[in-house]
Every structure is written in structure tokens, then in C-alpha cells.
Design goal:
Elements (H helix, E strand, L loop, with lengths): L10 H17 L4 H13 L3 H18 L2 H13 L4 H15 L31 H13 L22 H10 L1 E5 L4 E3 L7 E15 L5 E7 L4 E2 L13 E14 L2 H5 L3 H23 L8 H8 L3 E5 L4 E3 L7 E7 L2 E7 L2 E8 L4 E2 L1 H6 L6 E4 L3 E7 H10 L1 H22 L1
Antiparallel strand pairs: 1-6, 2-6, 3-4, 3-5, 3-6, 7-14, 8-13, 9-12, 9-14, 10-11, 10-13
């Protein structure tokens, strides 16, 4: 099957790929990525019933063997190749039974496979000369999912989806979409409005940020099971970086319209995404913020477990001037306006962005809030309640000292702004 923007391969190309696939399967008998490829090649060669049967057996194997994302991938391929709806629904039900959240869920560690054989490690010339014989052997090898398989006692989580109750799990699984792109395809463009979140199934994507000088910097690379773009379904914020395919890539797309399909259960998916994105952003914040870099790496994670995530709507006052300080806030995504009343007028003191801290002055001085902090758009913050901050003063005095320095600077800055 051709990817977005790619020309359809010739029959000769497909036959050659099928032969190579079989040669690799002979030396990597349990690697079901090869079997998925074989099933798709048979569909493209016109043997749809056999190809669909192989993809169905792969989906079953992935579910039982602890590769839930690949199982969903195989089921989406079945949809793509127009398999009977009952076949796909059966596979989704089996997946949900094993990987949706339940009160008795106990998850195991992620499972990893050996790398696929590389070109040169296999011998195409040793295969049968006739295509019919090659197809028959592919069919035999690809549909035998039990022989030699070792199914785990505890299955690993399916990223994001295993946080969902069965009904929401099935809705997300049904309405998610498979996207297949070629090298260089832009999946997310910096500055655009976010319309979907993505999960990498196969291949690698590169996260790129444009600098003030117009040059782009690669921030990181993401591979199988990693999620990106989820903030779009939480804060509706513009994309802060671009994501570009490196080679052929398959991703699972969770469109923003999925939230409408979920209805009252949408909050469950947004909560799972919030936890996921907060874990990642907190890790970045721990490593980059001068406030938290004073702690050794092995103590940073424990400290951040004391914070809770919170979503502020546009124009919502997170802190009101004159109120007692409720706690400390760290902006994870969004923008906060800091303002102060003077002589009957509101004066804007500052705008805070990702990584900035606020609320610290009233905590440190034990005084009412000195300014109003308002979300200028949907904003996600991490919140540390006053009681937890007092505990942090005892357990992490070096962090509190750094926050104190920041608070004094902010106070002086606001005085000069109003002067």
C-alpha cells in the first residue's frame, strides 16, 4: 500500500518485496512486523482474502503477546483494506478486554523485540522460484501465531488508552485514524492551530523548533509508542514546534473531533493526555529551570509528585489581587497576564509563559496576593498548595531559597514598572 505522497509500486516491485519479506521471515520467525508487511503485500498483489487473514492473525498475536499499539495498527490496516466490519470489531473487542482500564488492572513492563534482519543477512536466492510457492509459504508462516510464542503473564499498558474505561477505550480505538507518510512529511507545523494528537507506531519523527534567527533546531526524536501534539486536545494552543517524518512513518491520529464522539467521557481522555504531557513537560522543566536545577536529578522527580495539574480557561483569574495566597503555580502551557490596580486603573506588569513561576510572593511573605494573574488563553499549570509548599520549605530548602530570589526580583520589577 502506498504512503501519502508516494507513487504506487509496480507489480514487479511488490513481488520482489514479498520474496525479501519471506527470506527475512525464515530467520526471524517470531517477528510479526514482517508478517504485517507480508499481509499488506498480498493485498496489493490482489490476494486480498489471504492478506486479510494474515493481518487478522497478526492483530490477535499482538494483543496476546503484549504489543497493543501494533494490534491497533493491524486492525486499522484491516479497515484500510476493507475487511469485514465484524472482523475488525472482534479484534477491537479482544484488545479492549485486555488493555482497557479496570479496577483489577495490573500492568507489566513494556516488551521489546530484536531488530529486524538487515539486507545482506538473508538469502533471497534460496527461496522457491515460483511466486505461488512463495505465497503458500508466506501464508503458512504468517498465520501460525501459536507455535513458539511466549505470551506474558502481565501485559504492558497501551499509551493513553489504558487510562480509559472500556467504553471510552473502544470509542477512541474506533475513531482514531491511521496515517502513513513518507520521509520529510510535516505532521505538525509550528504555529498552526492544533487539530489532532498523534502516536508513533512505526518509524521515527523529528521535533523541530524555529529560532529567532530563522534557523531550525532539532529538539528530540520520537519513535514507537511516543505521543506528540496532545496539548492541542487540552488547551487548543498553537503548535510550539514542528514534527517531521524521518523515513516512512505510520502514526495513529486522534482528531480533535474525537472529543465530540466521546461526549461526557471526553474529560477522561483529556485527563490521560494531561498526565502524559505533564510528566514530559515536568521532566523538561526539572532539567531546564534554574529553580529546580539546584536539586540533584534523583531528587527532582519526587518533589514534583507534590504538584497537581490544573487547566485555567481564557480570562480566568488564577490569582486575585488581595486574596490570601493559595499556593505556587508553574505554567506548563499557555500565557498568564500579571496586573495590578492603582489609582482606580489596571496596570499590566508582565506576561508569563511556559516554565514561569507565580504566586510565590504571597507564600514567602505570608501576605495577600500583590497582583492579579489571569490566563490570556487556555492555560495548563502545575499547582502546589500552601500546605505542601510549607513542607517543601523543610524538605527542599535550596529550592525555596531560589524561589525566594525570584520573588524578590519580581517584587522589585513590579515596583519599577509602576513607578
Amino acid at each position: 500500500m502506498s504512503l501519502e505522497g508516494e507513487r504506487s509500486p509496480s507489480r514487479a516491485d511488490l513481488e520482489r518485496e514479498l520474496r525479501e519479506c519471506l527470506a527475512r521471515m525464515r530467520i526471524a520467525a517470531l517477528d510479526f512486523r514482517l508478517r504485517v508487511a507480508a499481509g499488506e503485500l498480498l493485498v496489493s498483489l490482489g490476494d486480498r482474502p489471504r492478506g486479510v487473514r494474515i493481518l487478522r492473525s497478526c492483530a490477535d498475536y499482538f494483543t496476546l503477546a503484549g504489543f497493543p499499539l501494533r494490534s491497533l495498527w493491524a486492525l486499522k490496516l484491516l479497515e484500510l483494506h476493507q475487511a469485514d466490519e465484524a472482523v475488525v470489531e472482534r479484534g477491537l473487542s479482544l484488545l479492549g478486554k485486555h488493555y482497557a482500564h479496570s479496577p483489577t488492572s495490573v500492568w507489566g513492563d513494556p516488551i521489546f523485540e530484536m531488530p529486524l534482519p538487515k539486507r545482506g543477512d538473508f538469502d533471497v536466492d534460496a527461496l522457491p522460484p515460483g511466486l505461488d510457492e512463495v505465497i503458500a509459504e508466506v501464508d503458512r508462516r504468517a498465520t501460525d501465531i501459536i507455535r513458539g510464542a511466549n505470551f506474558p503473564d502481565q501485559l504492558p499498558r497501551l499509551p493513553l488508552l489504558s487510562e480509559l474505561e472500556p467504553e471510552a477505550f473502544m470509542t477512541v480505538a474506533r475513531y482514531s485514524r491511521l496515517r502513513r507518510v513518507t520521509d520529510g512529511a510535516v505532521l505538525v507545523d509550528e504555529g498552526e492551530a492544533g487539530r489532532a494528537a498523534y502516536m508513533v507506531i512505526t518509524g521515527t519523527v523529528r521535533v523541530v523548533k524555529r529560532g529567532d534567527n530563522g534557523m531550525s533546531t532539532t529538539l528530540t526524536r520520537l519513535s514507537e509508542g511516543e505521543v506528540f501534539g496532545e496539548m492541542a486536545l487540552i488547551t487548543q494552543s498553537p503548535r510550539v514546534a514542528s514534527v517531521i517524518a524521518e523515513g516512512a512513518v505510520d502514526v495513529l491520529e486522534l482528531p480533535a473531533t474525537l472529543l465530540d464522539e466521546l461526549g461526557s467521557e471526553a474529560a477522561m481522555l483529556q485527563s490521560a493526555m494531561s498526565r502524559h504531557v505533564c510528566d514530559r513537560m515536568v521532566s523538561n522543566l526539572m532539567n531546564l529551570s534554574p529553580v529546580f536545577r539546584v536539586l540533584p536529578p534523583d531528587r527532582r522527580g519526587e518533589m514534583m509528585t507534590r504538584f497537581q495539574s490544573r487547566l485555567a480557561e481564557t480570562d480566568e483569574n488564577i490569582i486575585d489581587e488581595g486574596d490570601a495566597g493559595k499556593g505556587l503555580y508553574i505554567i506548563m502551557d499557555g500565557q498568564v497576564q500579571v496586573s495590578r490596580r492603582m489609582d482606580g486603573h489596571t496596570h499590566v506588569l508582565n506576561y508569563l509563559r511556559e516554565g514561569d513561576i507565580f504566586g510565590e510572593i504571597s507564600l514567602l511573605r505570608n501576605t495577600p496576593a500583590t497582583a492579579t494573574c489571569t490566563a490570556t488563553r487556555r492555560t495548563m499549570v502545575m499547582f502546589l498548595a500552601r500546605e505542601a509548599f510549607n513542607e517543601m520549605t523543610r524538605d527542599y530548602p535550596e529550592v525555596v531559597e531560589k524561589i525566594h530570589e525570584l520573588g524578590e526580583f519580581r517584587l522589585l520589577e513590579s515596583i519599577y514598572t509602576l513607578a
